[in-house]
Every structure is written in C-alpha cells, then in structure tokens.
Amino acid sequence: MKRFLCFLLLILVPLFTPCIGYSDLEVLLKLKTSMYGRNGTGLEDWVASPASPTAHCYFSGVKCDEESRVVSLNVSFRYLPGPIPPEIGLLNKLVNLTLSSNNLTGEIPVEMAMLTSLRILKVSNNVFDRSFPGKITLGMAQLEVLDVYNNNFSGSLPTEIVSLKNLKHVHLGGNFFSGTIPEEYSEILSLEYLGLNGNALSGKIPSSLCLLKSKLLPLSSSCV
Ligand SMILES: *[C@@H]1O[C@H](CO)[C@@H](O)[C@H](O)[C@H]1NC(C)=O
Ligand SMILES: *[C@@H]1O[C@H](CO)[C@@H](O)[C@H](O)[C@H]1NC(C)=O
Ligand SMILES: *[C@@H]1O[C@H](CO)[C@@H](O)[C@H](O)[C@H]1NC(C)=O
Ligand SMILES: *[C@@H]1O[C@H](CO)[C@@H](O)[C@H](O)[C@H]1NC(C)=O
Ligand SMILES: *[C@@H]1O[C@H](CO)[C@@H](O)[C@H](O)[C@H]1NC(C)=O
C-alpha cells in the first residue's frame, strides 16, 4: 500500500514529494551511483543502513537540518567521473552545494532549478560540458556564490544571473564560453568578483562594467 501511495504521489507531483519511497537518503545513494560511474572513489562511507532512515546525515560531506533534510553537501577532491543525476533537484532544502574538483562529466541537470534555497553553488574544476543552463538560477533568489571555474562549458555567458540581488562572487573563467560579455552584468550591483578569464570571448568589455572595475579585479587590466 505504501509503495502504491508513493507511486501515485510521484505521478501527481513529480519531483516534489520526498515521500517514503524517495527520501534524501535515497537521493544521495542515487547521486553516488551516478557520479561514481564505473570507477569512482571517495564516497565509500555513503551506504544505506536499514536500521537508520537518517543514516545519510552522517555521510561524509553531508549536513542535515532537524528534520533530517540535507542542507549542505560538500563533495570535493574525489574521483567521480560520472554525471550529476536529475534527482539532485529533490534535495530542495540545500543551502550550500559544493561539488568541486571531482572530474564530474555531462550536463548540469535543469532539475537543479528546484534548489531555490541555494546560497552557494560551486562546481569548479570538473569537466561539465554543453552550455551552462542559466535559467536554473532564476529561482535562486538567495544565491551569493556561483563558481563554475575550469570546466568545459561553451555557448554564451548566462544572462539570467542579472536578476539575482544577492550575488557577490561569480566565476565563469576557464571554460569555452564564446560571444560577448553581457552589458547587463553591470546591473548586478551586489557583485564583488566577476571572473571571466580563459574563455573564448570576443568584443570589448562593456564600459558600464569598467565603471565597476574597482570591484571586479580580474577585468580591470583590460579596461583602459
Ligand atoms: C579507472 O580509473 C583508473 C585510474 O584513473 C584508470 O586507469 C582506469 O582506466 C579506469 N577504468 C575504467 C574502466 O574507466
Ligand atoms: C553555508 O556556507 C556559509 C559560508 O561558508 C556558512 O556560513 C553557512 O553556515 C553554511 N550553511 C549551511 C546550512 O551549511
Ligand atoms: C569542502 O570540503 C573540502 C575538503 O573535502 C574542503 O577543503 C573545503 O574547504 C570544503 N568547503 C566548504 C565550503 O565547506
Ligand atoms: C581528473 O582527470 C585528470 C585528467 O584525466 C587527472 O589528471 C586528475 O588527476 C583527475 N582528478 C582526480 C581528482 O582524480
Ligand atoms: C574539454 O574540451 C577540450 C577542448 O574542446 C577538449 O580538448 C577536451 O577533450 C574536453 N574534455 C573532456 C573531458 O571532454
């Protein structure tokens, strides 16, 4: 019966219900399986314990709130050659998400748009590719740090981030982004750091951005 209910819920409200069949524990195990690929290392302690439905709160790199929902996930410097699975969107209480220096591959799943409590999103030093789906940030009103440094992202720079009022640190450098630097970036008044170095960008640095140059150190040498 429980299983049936859970199945129904999943159909009715896809991805929203951390129902009995799809707890944060199971989502993390899903993440592990996907990111490990055939050959990962470094999440050996992420194992289910039948005796404890809150076992995931003690996994390395995981922090939970009082309701055993995951609020912080920091998995860095492991070898994880697989992709981030779409189920990550179910961890919708996440505040800090750091998945850096893991050799993660594939695309950034659009389901990450459901992580609307995020303050820190770091996926630097991996090999993610395709374009960076800027629209996932639209609902992340609290976002302060967006760091995608040193991946294989291509296409144009994301413009959606200009609507984020708390954004302080943005690092998009070390990728294959092309096209021009969006003039709108100068509208992010909270911005303290903007890293764009090491891309395939063309054109000039918008003069409006240069006016902010005291805050945007890596760009300032190119503003004359
Ligand atoms: C597993 O990783 C090792 C070390 O990085 C590598 O030499 C080996 O080819 C990998 N095996 C597979 C099946 O990917
Ligand atoms: C998120 O990171 C910030 C800055 O490192 C820290 O102050 C805050 O306590 C973290 N929040 C959680 C829920 O871990
Ligand atoms: C994440 O974990 C790594 C080590 O695995 C550590 O160096 C880093 O400071 C941590 N970052 C945060 C934001 O807690
Ligand atoms: C990631 O891959 C690169 C190149 O294949 C390798 O040099 C590096 O050591 C890998 N990183 C980790 C954390 O295994
Ligand atoms: C990343 O992109 C570069 C340049 O296009 C390419 O040489 C490299 O093989 C790519 N790496 C991966 C892991 O896809």
From TrEMBL:
Glycoprotein keyword on record: yes
Q: Which GO terms describe its cellular component?
A: membrane
ATP-binding in keyword set: no
Keywords, ordered alphabetically = Glycoprotein, Kinase, Leucine-rich repeat, Membrane, Receptor, Repeat, Signal, Transferase
Which Pfam family is one of those matched by this entry? LRRNT_2
Subcellular location(s) of the protein: Membrane
Superkingdom of this protein's organism: Eukaryota
Enumerate the InterPro entries for this protein. DNA_repair-toleration, Leu-rich_rpt, LRR_dom_sf, LRR_N_plant-typ
MF annotations from Gene Ontology: kinase activity
Question: Major place of localization?
Answer: membrane
Query: Which residues belong to any copy of the Leucine-rich repeat-containing N-terminal plant-type domain?
Result: 23-65
> What does UniProt list as this organism's lineage?
Eukaryota, Viridiplantae, Streptophyta, Embryophyta, Tracheophyta
From the UniProt annotation, give the residues forming the signal peptide.
1-21
Question: What protein name applies here?
Answer: RECEPTOR PROTEIN KINASE CLAVATA1
